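Pair request: fold both.
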Amino acid sequence: MKGARNCGNSCGWSLPARKRYLEGFFTDGRRLIWEYPRATPNGDQMDFVESMELNDDGLISRHRVYWGWFGVGVLQRDEYRRSF
């Protein structure tokens, strides 16, 4: 899995740093983990890691998001909300 998942303005995101580039994921069958790195082939993006735990039915039972410093800076400067 490599590439960008960017739904653009149809999702309400117009901030250039709010891309969704990722290069893969890790799983043990019960937990999925993937990273949106700051540095991408097309420039910087908001950086964070997502983790999801699945129950016995394969449904999400827990979802966590861990923000990187670049993404935290975007939030601190209120750039994300001001982009709408």
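--- second member of the pair ---
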Amino acid sequence: MYVAETRGDRERYERKLKRGCRIVTREVPLIGVKPDRIDYPFFLMYLPFKYAEEDWAGSILQTNNATSQKLYKELRRQPWS
């Protein structure tokens, strides 16, 4: 299933999809959701989602001092972009 994120998608996925359902995205996970597994450029997320309270970029880059600017800079460098 191709997932294109728009406003309200996270909540809609949690309402409509069953617990344990997997969503895979390419290049970046759903905004604010911590991925369960990362195999660049793919991100796997299980329902129910694990939300990143403050450090969403850090959960993607797997570091403690990440910022959204560092995240997007890293994503622009990737060969699949």
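Observation on the second member. The chain has one domain: 9-77.
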